[in-house]
């Protein structure tokens, strides 16, 4: 069976297995994300402490992403991903057990969020750099788009289901079901034929390899631009796990089910964006494919501050989801199609650092501003700061391009 153009990455057997396992697992991941945010608000009623959980969950990426990238370039990627996914399975079951046993406290959530962050720090550069080995460079953008589609399709299904389950059975069931879904991804990984063996090493130390990857990224303008834009967007505009539950509860006066529907709207927009890329995307994206969605995302974040109606908020979150996935998939593809194969793990660890590693800083900022001044002010500051950073990077890129054309 041959898949049509928009699904042609699925013609690769190993990617098809990998993709199917991720589809199941990611639904559980989004269920746990919603349940964890709601649990923290129930335990503490504090936006700042909710932001602190985000900080603890993503701080390991800020501290250890360089090391994780070097490890991904040194070890077989399939085995590394199996280990990280197994750790995430255990983390989910421990959360479920503590919740169902009635022993859950805020410090438990904080500690387990840190464990999640450590496992995810190893997982992300290995998983992202593994995709090109499953499909090859010609089908890479389609594979990234299809991965984005299931990631964000899960964002539609997971939060909606989680909201209904939490309302009826409590948060523990969401953690337990997430643990079960990791069995699917582990089964898929065990069935792969591709190991993702590293390139032959040249006797350099890990520190020397890390410096080599960072130096290459800093000296390659297109990679530097993509990483800087991801830094700005993830730091200021991707704090959904903080903004959306507070918007739902404090501004729109919604319960868990309404919160789940808002997260589902965000995911639905992202699915539409991913499917658009799957059908139309081919080759390395132009710079405008990064800058235009980022600008729209910043503008919509500011606009959301004025919204007081549930369905208007859902519509704006739909647009945010669409633009967010166009931006992130384009940035990911730009990096992977620009970097040499032997540096891919290290450059993708830089992507992990700026995508997820700076989220702790953004989470703390948004949590603090929101607790001090309210949700609308937090949205305006986050959106306005993101827009200013993106416009500044666009100006730098145009100046560099003009100088390059002038020398040619």
Labels describing this entry:
408 residues, mainly alpha, 15 helices, Growth Hormone, Chain: A
Question: Could you please describe the fold and organization of this structure?
Answer:
The structure is a single chain. The mean pLDDT is 85. Helix 2 (47-72) runs antiparallel to helix 14 (359-373). Helix content is 82%, strand content 0%. The chain has a single domain, classed as MFS general substrate transporter like domains (Growth Hormone, Chain: A, Up-down Bundle). 57% of the residues are buried. It has helices spanning 13-44, 47-72, 77-100, 106-135, 140-169, 172-190, 206-218, 221-236, 240-251, 256-280, 288-304, 310-338, 344-357, 359-373, 375-407. It is globular and about 55 Å long. The N and C termini lie far apart (49 Å). The chain is mainly α and 408 residues long.
Calculate Rg over CA atoms. 20 Å
What is the number of helices? Answer: 15
CATH topology: Growth Hormone, Chain: A
* Straight-line N-to-C gap: 49 Å
Q: For the record, what is the CATH homologous superfamily label?
A: MFS general substrate transporter like domains
Quickly name the level 1 CATH class: Mainly Alpha
What is the arithmetic mean of pLDDT?
Answer: 85
- Helices and strands, in order, run as HHHHHHHHHHHHHHH
The domain tally reads 1
- Please indicate the percent range of residues in DSSP E strands (runs of 2 or more): under 5%
The name of the CATH architecture is Up-down Bundle
Query: How would you describe the shape?
Result: globular
């Amino acid at each position: 069976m041959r898949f049509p153009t928009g699904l042609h990455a699925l013609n690769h057997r190993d990617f098809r297995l990998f993709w199917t396992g991720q589809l199941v697992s990611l639904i559980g991941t989004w269920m746990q994300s919603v349940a964890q945010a709601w649990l923290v608000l129930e335990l503490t009623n504090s936006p700042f402490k909710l932001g602190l959980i985000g900080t603890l969950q993503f701080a390991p990426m800020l501290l250890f992403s360089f090391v994780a990238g070097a490890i991904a370039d040194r070890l077989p990627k399939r085995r590394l991903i199996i280990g990280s996914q197994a750790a995430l399975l255990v983390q989910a079951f421990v959360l479920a057990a503590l919740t169902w046993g009635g022993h859950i406290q805020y410090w438990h959530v904080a500690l387990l969020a840190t464990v999640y962050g450590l496992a995810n720090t190893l997982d992300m550069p290995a998983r992202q750099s593994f995709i090109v080995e499953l499909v090859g460079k010609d089908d890479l953008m389609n594979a990234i788009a299809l991965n984005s589609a299931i990631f964000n399709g899960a964002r539609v299904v997971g939060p909606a289901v989680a909201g209904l389950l939490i309302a009826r059975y409590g948060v523990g069931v969401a953690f337990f079901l997430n643990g079960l879904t990791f069995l699917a991804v582990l089964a898929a990984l065990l069935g792969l034929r591709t190991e993702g063996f590293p390139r032959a090493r040249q006797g350099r130390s890990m520190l020397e390899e890390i410096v080599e990857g960072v130096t290459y990224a800093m000296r390659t303008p297109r990679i530097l631009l993509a990483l800087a834009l991801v830094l700005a967007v993830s730091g200021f505009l991707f704090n959904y796990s903080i903004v959306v539950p507070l918007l739902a509860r404090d501004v729109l006066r919604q319960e868990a089910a309404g919160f789940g529907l808002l997260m589902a709207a965000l995911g639905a927009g992202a699915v539409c964006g991913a499917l658009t890329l799957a059908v139309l995307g081919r080759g390395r994206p132009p710079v405008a494919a990064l800058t235009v969605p980022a600008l729209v995302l910043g503008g919509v974040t500011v606009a959301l501050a004025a919204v007081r109606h549930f369905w208007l908020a859902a519509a704006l979150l739909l647009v945010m989801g669409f633009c967010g996935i166009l931006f992130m998939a384009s940035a990911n593809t730009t990096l992977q199609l620009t970097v040499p194969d032997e540096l891919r793990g290290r450059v993708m660890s830089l992507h992990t650092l700026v995508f997820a590693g700076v989220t702790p800083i953004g989470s703390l900022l948004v949590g603090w501003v929101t607790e001090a001044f309210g949700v609308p002010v937090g949205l305006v500051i986050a959106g306005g700061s993101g827009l200013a950073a993106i416009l500044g990077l666009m100006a730098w890129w145009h100046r560099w391009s003009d100088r390059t054309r002038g020398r040619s």
